[in-house]
Amino acid sequence: MKIVLGSSEINLPILPGDVSDTIWSALRNGTYEAKEAYWVRKAVRTGDRVLELGTGLGIIATILATEIDVQVSAFDANPEIVRLAENVVKANGRHNISVAQGLMTAGSPRDFLFYLRKDFWMSSVFEDQGPYERIITIRSIDIDEFIVNARITLLIMDIEGGECELLQGAELPGVERVFLELHDHLYGLAGVRQITTAMAAKGFAYDPRGSSGACVLFSRNLDIREYEEEAYAVSA
């Protein structure tokens, strides 16, 4: 199967039985990560070293990898989804993406329970987010240590609420931009305030030129850029 997201045509070696009916329907009708795929292009720059948390099927990673001289390190805690993402990356000939199972947190590695759900995009470390099919134990990776070693400049994350605690605890050394999906239905506006306050303390500002609704870009480079009318289009 092939899908088109914006200007990107992506090969998807995915079968109906590989994902839930809900996710299969989203893939078929072109709504799967469509908004994220559009806005993440505002975040990536030539030469970026990207860390993506919660890669899912690897579609966003595949889009990011089309930028010149970009290297993407993509992680997901779900081992079955990592296998699917690896197949997607291979089917699209992206040799500048590495995909691995992993859960990143601020601080020293420790064990977490991870709850796998039928709709994999709902899987998380939080038991109370709905019915789950099984539980796995996964040892975390210190995100700041990884960022330093891999010289990460752009952090992408869609981790079902885990971003609230992570962004408060991590230092994000050397990271220039952070693009994430907020999950205010899980932590409310109080959680959004905690995230924005923590990011401001690290020198990041909310960047409206790469943000729309729950898809938010934080940038450390506060230089004035040329006005981009497309970035403010209501239709987007």
Key phrases:
236 residues, alpha/beta, Rossmann fold, seven-stranded mixed β-sheet, two-stranded antiparallel ribbon, 29% helix
Q: How many E-type strands?
A: 13
Give start-end ranges of low-pLDDT stretches. none
**Continuous helix count:** 7
The CATH topology assignment of the domain at 33-105 and 141-232 is: Rossmann fold
Distance between the termini: 25 Å
Mean pLDDT: 93
Please specify the SSE layout and strand pairing.
Blueprint: E1 2-5, E2 8-11, H1 21-29, H2 34-40, E3 49-53, H3 59-64, E4 71-76, H4 79-91, E5 97-101, E6 104-105, E7 111-116, E8 134-139, E9 141-142, H5 143-150, E10 154-157, H6 163-169, E11 177-181, H7 184-201, E12 205-206, E13 215-219
Parallel strand pairs: 3-4, 3-10, 4-5, 6-9, 10-11
Antiparallel strand pairs: 1-2, 7-8, 11-13, 12-13
Q: In brief, what are we looking at here?
A:
With 236 residues, this protein is α/β, with parallel strands linked by helices. The chain has helices spanning 21-29, 34-40, 59-64, 79-91, 143-150, 163-169, 184-201; strands spanning 2-5, 8-11, 49-53, 71-76, 97-101, 104-105, 111-116, 134-139, 141-142, 154-157, 177-181, 205-206, 215-219.
